[in-house]
């Protein structure tokens, strides 16, 4: 299985300065500049932080803006004020047009995610963005902050459009002056308990659930494979972009040399034709860069669903833990009843009863009553988690179908459109250099 830390990123490299600034002014190679259909014409742009299901949310707007560096004045710091962190302005507007603003840091989002996971066991709660400590050290500071800002905004939207989480107490719309992120004002950093050590095996008897769980595991493996293939595709297109760019630049240098050193008119003619090919190569490089940028946006849905798989695994883990609690309590009750029965038999053999045994029997019966109450609560919680799992699996099937269909439509649309533009570029070259084909016949 793939964890959040192993997600494959296939962002293309930044534009190369020499190709970007190169002026292509050859009048022989002009082609109509027709932009290919944007992804939004086929489906909603997955790079946007506002999901297409926002119509079902109680919120008209959720934004994370204005990142600001703050000094940490916590008393635990060795040098007060030396540590820094970034805060973000979180704004929301509900459908009754109430607006709220609050400034919070990433640690508050961590606490929010912990609280939501604890209060919505069995649901596929959207995972929060990772801390990415290593990435923050490798990237430029402003680039990392902007990337995190977009991730946090997308995360809040995913929470808001979730049919259960979006209407929960933690994210309830404004009532009596409360804002979308009311919980941020009450939260304190929580301590995560480490469930270490060996656990007894959990016996799951729901065959339908086991079949669905196996299918989800297969889906996660397929997503992992598809993500690797997507990375390979983007890398291949990036290689073509770089190769065509270098070819174009090399030919342009050759053309410059030919023009400067030309003695005969035929040399100048060949130089002009070479410039035509060079211009086409550079244009092709630029088109591949644009195509790759679009491909990354479309295929990013694969990474998003790998994140969803983490939420699914968390919900299934909640179910297993809850079932383990029920089974443990049932086992405890069986053991307690056996002890009580043994004490009753032993006491009945003594005339007048044994006070110590009677007292111990009463304590066991009291423990049995408390364990029965705990068992009832545990079964109720387990049934609730089971129902949450069932509803969430149905929702996942529907949304996965829509999202993947949209991803494929957008991906194919842009692949075809850019391929046609690239074909037009080289068709022009073929037309302008066709005399060479006649000369070789």
UniProtKB/TrEMBL annotation:
Gene3D superfamilies given in the database record: Arfaptin homology (AH) domain/BAR domain, Phox-like domain
Keyword check for Oxidoreductase: no
Coiled coil (residue ranges): 202-236
Chain ranges of the PX domain: 66-191
PROSITE patterns reported for this sequence: PX
Biased composition (Low complexity): 47-57
Record flagged with keyword Lipoprotein: no
InterPro entries for the chain: AH/BAR_dom_sf (IPR027267), PX_dom (IPR001683), PX_dom_sf (IPR036871), SNX2A/B (IPR044279), Vps5_C (IPR015404)
Disordered: region residues: 1-20, 25-58
Protein name: PX domain-containing protein
Taxonomic source organism: Asparagus officinalis
Lineage: Eukaryota, Viridiplantae, Streptophyta, Embryophyta, Tracheophyta
């Amino acid at each position: 299985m793939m964890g959040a830390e192993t997600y494959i990123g296939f962002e293309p490299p930044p534009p190369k300065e020499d190709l970007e600034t190169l002026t292509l002014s050859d009048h022989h190679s002009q082609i109509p500049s027709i932009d290919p259909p944007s992804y939004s014409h086929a489906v909603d742009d997955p790079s946007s932080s506002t999901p297409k299901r926002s119509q079902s949310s109680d919120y008209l707007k959720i934004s994370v803006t204005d990142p600001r560096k703050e000094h940490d004045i916590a008393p635990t710091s060795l040098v007060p004020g030396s540590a820094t962190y970034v805060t973000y302005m979180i704004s929301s507007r509900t459908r009754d047009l109430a607006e709220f603003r609050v400034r919070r840091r990433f640690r508050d989002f961590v606490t929010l995610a912990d609280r939501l996971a604890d209060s919505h066991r069995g649901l596929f709660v959207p995972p929060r963005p990772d801390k990415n400590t290593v990435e923050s050290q490798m990237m430029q500071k402003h680039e990392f902050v902007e990337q995190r800002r977009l991730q946090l905004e997308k995360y809040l939207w995913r929470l808001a459009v979730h049919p259960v989480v979006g209407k929960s107490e933690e994210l309830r719309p404004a009532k009596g002056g409360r804002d979308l992120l009311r919980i941020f004002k009450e939260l304190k950093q929580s301590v995560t308990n480490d469930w270490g050590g060996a656990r007894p095996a959990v016996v799951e008897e729901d065959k339908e659930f086991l079949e669905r769980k196996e299918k989800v595991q297969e889906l996660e493996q397929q997503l992992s494979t598809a993500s690797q293939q997507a990375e390979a595709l983007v890398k291949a297109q990036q290689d073509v972009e770089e190769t065509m760019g270098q070819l174009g630049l090399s030919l342009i240098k050759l053309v410059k040399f030919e023009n400067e050193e030309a003695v005969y008119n035929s040399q100048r003619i060949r130089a002009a034709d070479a410039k035509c090919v060079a211009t086409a190569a550079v244009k092709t490089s630029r088109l591949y860069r644009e195509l790759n940028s679009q491909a990354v946006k479309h295929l990013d849905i694969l990474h998003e669903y790998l994140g969803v798989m983490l939420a699914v695994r968390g919900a299934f883990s909640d179910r297993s833990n809850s079932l383990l609690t029920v089974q443990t309590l049932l086992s405890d009750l069986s053991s307690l009843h056996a002890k009580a029965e043994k004490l009753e038999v032993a006491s009945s053999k003594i005339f007048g009863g044994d006070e110590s045994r009677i007292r111990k029997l009463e304590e066991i019966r009291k423990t049995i009553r408390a364990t029965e109450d705990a068992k009832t609560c545990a079964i109720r919680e387990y049934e609730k988690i089971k129902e949450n799992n069932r509803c969430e699996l149905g929702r996942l099937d529907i949304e996965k179908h829509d999202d993947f269909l949209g991803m494929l439509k957008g991906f194919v649309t842009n692949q075809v459109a850019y391929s046609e533009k690239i074909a037009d570029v080289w068709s022009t070259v073929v037309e302008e250099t066709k005399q060479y084909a006649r000369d070789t016949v």
